[in-house]
Amino acid sequence: MTVLVTGGAGYIGSHVVRMLVGLQREVVVIDSLETGHRDAVLGVPLVVGDIADKALVSGVVGEYRVDSVIHFAAYKAPEASMVAPERYFANNVAGTVSLLDVLVQAGVTQFVFSSTCAVYGTPKRLPVDEDHELGPESPYGESKLIVERMLNWMERCHGMRSVSLRYFNAAGASADGVIGEDWRSTSNLVPLAMKAALGRAPKLIVFGTDYPTPDGSAIRDYIHVEDLADAHVRALEYLERGGEGTVVNLGSATGTSVLEIVDATRRLTGTELPVELTGRRAGDPVAVYADNTRATEVLGWKPTRNLDDIVSSAWQWHSTHPDGYGS
């Protein structure tokens, strides 16, 4: 039987696909290639199309005998979702409804969902656990929470068990530098730091140096993309053992400041990394990091890679692929 990975040609999805293949699992990918890359799937069967295309999805599920799904296919920029919320609800929510409809008809009952810590909004306490109040502050976060709620009803009504993985900030690249993040379509801190370190951007802008943190910069929770991939595989295995539907945070449980990322980048790359320090952005919280206790208890998962691993792997990828997969 086969695992269908939607959005499997994207940044995180491609790392999950590669890990599944390394475990001798049968895999097929559906990806529109709107932000994904054909080369990222490394020869795994790829069907180019939209998850909202029921005929296409049904054909893939039948042809490849799909019995489980890991679902990444979604738009994922909170800022962009504030400009075009309808686009996010159409793709992230309505597209997932179409996908789930096909899967129910096909009898697929195992579903791993790529969710986000954005469902919590600005944390009221730290670290953030899964029982924290839910309060998305963007259509992106709201779209992910709607899907989580849908999945709860899919289990109650159709027996489709799911794990929603609420991860924090994915970063880094594969240890061998073969696959990684395309900085042309991201606003994430680590690739922006790499771009400035390589002279492909004039500088890295650091927003806020007067936060009540040890170095004055904001703190976020960075997780190596290969640790994230491992968690997705563990979530699938949990469902295959008969596990009930649940939600799980994926984070480091400590957090890293923006200036710690800057220092690590300078130290590990040997570059100056030009930086401009400026004021805070409206709405940016002081600190956000996860309580990952449930991930350990339910999935047997803990991150094994540290900040140096994240920065070193990102540098190896970006310095050899400055134009992404087109390099």
Identify the notable features of this structure and list them briefly.
10 helices, two-stranded parallel sheet, 327 residues, 39% helix, 7-stranded parallel beta sheet, alpha/beta
Provide a quick synopsis of the model.
This protein is an alpha/beta fold and 327 residues long. Helix content is 39%, strand content 17%.
Notes on the protein architecture:
By secondary structure, the protein is of the alpha/beta class. The chain contains 10 helices and 13 strands. Helix 1 (11-22) links the parallel strand 1 and strand 2. 39% of the residues lie in helices and 17% in strands. The radius of gyration is 19 Å and the shape is globular. Helix 4 runs parallel beside helix 5 (139-158) and helix 6 crosses helix 10. It has helices at residues 11-22, 54-63, 78-83, 85-106, 139-158, 189-197, 225-240, 258-269, 293-299, 307-320, and strands at residues 2-6, 26-31, 46-48, 66-71, 110-116, 161-167, 169-171, 204-207, 219-220, 222-224, 246-250, 256-257, 275-278.
